[in-house]
Write a structure and sequence with these properties.
Layout: E1 2-5, H1 12-25, E2 30-34, E3 39-43, H2 49-58, E4 64-66
Antiparallel strand pairs: 1-3, 1-4, 2-3
């Protein structure tokens, strides 16, 4: 498992963009994103950490490598798409 903190990921659109970017590099990868904690975890099938980080950067975000943790893809309470807006 490879994990990143992406502090500039702020809404559901960001989650979708990052997921698509990672899948473009490694279509068979398992991607888990927790928007509330800005965590992105990837179980790659062929890509390495550098390729995955580059995909996130190319999508317009700033990933920082971190130790993997358990993440969920639940939306924060009170939000419609995870961005905190109603």
């Amino acid at each position: 498992m490879i994990a990143f903190e992406v502090n500039d990921m702020t809404c559901g659109h960001c989650v979708s963009t990052i997921t698509k970017a990672l899948k473009a590099v490694d279509n068979a990868a398992t991607v888990q994103i927790d928007l509330a904690t800005h965590r992105v975890q990837v179980e790659p099938s062929s890509a390495d950490a550098e390729e995955l980080a580059e995909a996130i950067k190319d999508a317009g975000y700033s990933p920082t490598s971190i130790a993997p943790t358990n993440v969920t893809s639940e939306k924060p309470a009170g939000s419609c798409c995870g961005c905190g807006s109603r």
